[in-house]
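Kindly review these tokens for lecture notes.

. . .
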Amino acid sequence: MATPYVTPEMLQNAPTGLPWDTIPLPQSTLMEQLAEQTNIAWRATGEVDSFCNQPLRATLDVEEDVGPEFRLTVKNGLASMIMSRWPVVQIIGAQVSGAATLPPQWTSIPATMLRTRTALIGTYGTSTPGLDATGPAQIDVGGGYVNWYMGRQGYRLQIAYINGWPHTSLTANATAGTTLFHVDDVTGLAGATAFIYDGGETETVQVASVTATNPVTVMGVSVPVGPGTATLATGTAHSHNAGIVVSALPQVVQWATILFAAAQVLTEGAMTYNIQSVRGTGGSAEREQTGLRTLAHGMLKPFKRVI
């Protein structure tokens, strides 16, 4: 996971009115500017995830709960677990044990007995979550693997799944027409449609398959996560350099990240900036950073996870 939601180049090109070439200090070297702009991008990414109470990028999660209870319910013979992260893109596997058994004696649950409560509304008919804050947050378990036979909190259920939007960047240059990308994170990327954010040569690509350099095994299933390669359904229209972002994140999330980054600069108060007020009039840096964060919070509110 080596790519923040926005890069220094994306910050510099965004219409924030901030002179990024003077950060961290006037007359800083290009390397010093790049280093601090990268730090700002990562801090802004952390602020997005902190506000949303979950990472929005695609991640592999293994979650466990005891039920039947509030989050793990059983009704009409069907168990349902509310996951702490969403949207659920893929169910990797599940296993169950008696809650009082230590260590747990796991019984694997067949994939045919697992489903998301609602269908994933993908982008352009793909397995990528849509560009708005929608998607499944519950996983149903059939077959009576979790029931009321052992009473309340009688079962321990563990589910492995992938949630969120694929987000990565190129680790090697890609020539025009190529169908093979080297990226820093393939999590959730297989079957996805993503944007290659490369200025005037931005384009969308369909990922047919991925291969991880070091896949992990979860519940007996090999899961491609981390660095690897992505094979595209069709060749790219343009060439792209290493470091270019390839992402399915909703654009509103990236814009909110940019606003958080701009607010950081104003909060740090390294120097005085003459920028347009978010309310349409001039104002102090403190008032401006508050306004920027308020705008970002409003954009991200639909993505905030509350259980």
Notes: Residues 1-56+249-307 form one domain. The first helix runs from residue 8 to 13. Confidence is low (pLDDT under 50) at residues 270-282. The helical segments are 8-13, 30-52, 251-268, 285-300.
